[in-house]
Amino acid sequence: MLDPREAEEIPGEIDPALRGEIAHTTAAAIVHRARASEDPAVVERLVSLVEDEGLDVVAGLWADSPADTLPGALWRLYVLREWVRRDPRTVADRYRLGTAAAPVHDVVAGVVAPPGPEDVRSVADAVLSGVFAGDLAVALERAAAFCRVLATGAAFDADHVEGVDADHATHMTRGAASLVGTAEELVRAAELWRAERLD
């Protein structure tokens, strides 16, 4: 058995308070550095952060951050962009399905109609670019609208497959609900940014 002093010397998880501080510091540094720069290459590098550093690195920084914080909002945007980057065909198909029932959100998201895989990739990149070089609140609202259209499309898609594969339909319905939740979180983050309270 280890005595208490020896046990304390064993390396373990990072202190949650320190992890939170690191998340906030890195998010603020990245956003403010990019917004202060007029170099489009800086924005381009930040948009492709996940490809360059890996999703695990970004997750290690921000995944545990609450949605109503700057690192939490950035994490959601990067995950959304990574999904679009990895599976643009499915995203484009679901987006097309969702546009008929969510036309206002479609307009806010700014995807060309009918969208193809490259179109949804371009919008995901444009939204993330807006975080670093535009109005961050507008970028968050565009991402929220994008999520709402995708959620609607996923729900329709689930209806189509329910008779064939009920388990998959249930999984898709849960995914749609998650997207609606993410949209609500992004809208709240936009409100906080406008009120200068998104830390």
Automatic annotation (TrEMBL):
This is DNA-directed RNA polymerase subunit beta. The lineage of its organism: Bacteria, Bacillati, Actinomycetota, Actinomycetes, Micrococcales.
